[in-house]
Amino acid sequence: MDQPSDVPAEVTTASVAPDDDDLLSALEVIEGQPLAARAAGYEALLDALAKRLESGPTDARP
Predict the structure, then answer these.
(1) Rg (CA), the chain
(2) How many angstroms separate the CA atoms of 36 and 23, rounded?
(3) How far is CA 33 from CA 45, 58, 59, in A?
């Protein structure tokens, strides 16, 4: 994802790819940003969570 020039550098996939315990903190950081940065932050968070989901186990549970 390319980051718009008005989005702060701290709103990146790396900074919003939280562990389970840090999800709320990541959301609080995103919510504290201006609107354009929030949109980019949520997009980065969505991408990071989707990658984690896709890389998870593929075994079907009974």
Answers:
(1) 13
(2) 20
(3) 14, 36, 38
